[in-house]
Amino acid sequence: MLLSTRQSRPQSENFSLLNQERSNMSTSGKVIKCKAAVLWGLNQPLSIEEIEVAPPKAHEVRVKILATGICRTDDHAIKGDLAAKFPVILGHEAAGIVESIGEGVTTVKPGDKVIPLCLPQCGQCSSCINPNGNFCEKADITGKGVLSDGTSRFTCRGKPVYQFSSTSTFTEFTVVDEIAITKIDADAPLEKVCLIGCGFSTGYGAAMKTAKVTPGSTCVVFGLGGVGLSVIMGCKVAGASRIIGIDINKDKFEKAKAVGATECINPKDLTKPISEVLKEMTDNSVGYTFEAIGRPETLIDALASCHMSYGTSVIVGLPPSSKMLTYDPMLLFTGRTWKGCTFGGWKSKDDLPILVSDYLAKKFDLDQLITHVLPFTKIKEGFDLLYKGEGIRTVLVM
Ligand code: CND
Ligand code: ZN
Ligand code: ZN
Fold it and tell me: What separation in Å is there between the alpha carbon of 334 and the centre of ligand 3?
């Protein structure tokens, strides 16, 4: 029976699972030495190091990471646009298998396939108990870099190494709080569903859950990276009839059209403000705009580009942490709605397993987002692909 379940999985994953079961017995309760990409300081190169990963304490889970995507948010931490404590292990979009659990853990067990949650769901805070909230109060928004007990489980060269975004996935093993991990279908291919750990869910949910795009509507997506393309996929599934993609890199247009954009614009080709161009192009009918870049100027452009009375603009891109915005309040006075959206509005622990099942039921395609697959140790190459604008999502496999 067990054998037949295994036979339906890819060979490499069967091998990992078998190894995993063997290693569980020998590693549980012990410190694990493994490879990780350590960032020693702002704007430093990522350095592949041997680290020590302590066993999980009560209500914590140690996970063997098998696949992790590279998201722009990781780069924001490298550049200082998102607060982090150094040295740190970045990475937050991943999938893996539980190696061992701490006392009191009930929702996952060794051998389970899981996705670590960069936005936890504690189930008890004001956001978690409200049906419309998802930004759990336990989320590490200020970059504390520690688990709930105030410490990290990593050391390297005798120094403590901080965690990132409740997760840290650029490592062969990580430890997370139980509220920051969710069990997924045993048949899920980890090298694909890792994207459900951030980029895909963020963009798709921005359209489906936060904006609640209506059939027949016109949508505009600023920024055609992994997050923006996932917004387009959500707009398409929601039944939008026109989806306009905006990017300063025209090489992104082909993929944007493949996932559902009906047309694409490069702001560099325009002589008028983008909001005016969109108004003319659509006969003043833009219902929804999404900013999936994270720049103050494009946040305002996206707001101004949705319809003055019934339009909704969603902030998906991560704005630089210390920057303030100046905007004309008349943009809102006339009736526009301006919304923020983290993690696609999903309640992470509850909703991610459903998204994984939807993927297995072929409700959306993650392959289109994955432009490169590299061994984990080639992480620098993966970031270079992001910087050159060539990679949509690079998946690193361990
Ligand atoms: P990525 O860098 O792959 O994509 C951004 C795209 O924007 C690229 O195609 C750029 O060419 C394009 N771009 C840059 N500047 C401009 C401009 N001025 N005008 C038009 N296009 C431009 O990033 P990603 O898709 O991985 O992430 C996008 C943003 O979303 C980023 O800020 C990331 O940190 C954020 C994010 C937010 C959340 C959330 O929960 N809200 C989760 N994950 C990522
Ligand atoms: Zn909570
Ligand atoms: Zn991300």
Answer: 33
User: How many angstroms separate the Cα of 333 from the Cα of each of 277, 284, 390?
Assistant: 22, 18, 40
Ligand with an atom nearest the CA of residue 348: 2
Please give, one letter per residue, the 3-state secondary structure of 45-71.
CCEEEEEEECCCCCCEEEEEEEEEECC
Q: How far is the CA of 200 from the centre of ligand 3 (A)?
A: 9
Among the listed residues 320, 367, 279, 359, the one whose alpha carbon sits nearest the alpha carbon of residue 80: 320
CATH number of the domain residue 372 falls in: 3.90.180.10
Q: What pLDDT does 192 receive?
A: 98
Range of the domain at 93: 11-197+365-397
**Phi/psi zone of residue 389: left (φ > 0), alpha (ψ -120 to 50 degrees), beta?**
left
Among residues of the chain, what percentage have pLDDT more than 90?
91
Report the CATH number that the domain containing residue 261 is assigned in CATH: 3.40.50.720
20 and 152: one domain?
yes
Residues 111 and 233 both lie in one domain: no
Q: Are residues 133 and 253 in the same domain?
A: no
pTM of the model: 0.94
Same domain, 93 and 228: no
Same domain, 97 and 240: no
Asked if the structure places residue 354 within a domain, the reply is no
* Chain segment 155-186, per-residue pLDDT in tens: 999 999 999 999 999 999 999 999 999 999 99
C-alpha to C-alpha distance for 367 and 361, rounded to whole angstroms? 14
How much distance in Å is there from the Cα of 130 to the middle of ligand 2?
A: 10
Alpha helices in 165-225 (DSSP H): 190-193, 199-205
Task: Identify which of 291, 293, 387 to mutate to test ligand 1's pocket (most ligand atoms within 8 A of the CB).
Answer: 293
Same domain, 140 and 46: yes
- The average pLDDT across 132-148 equals 95
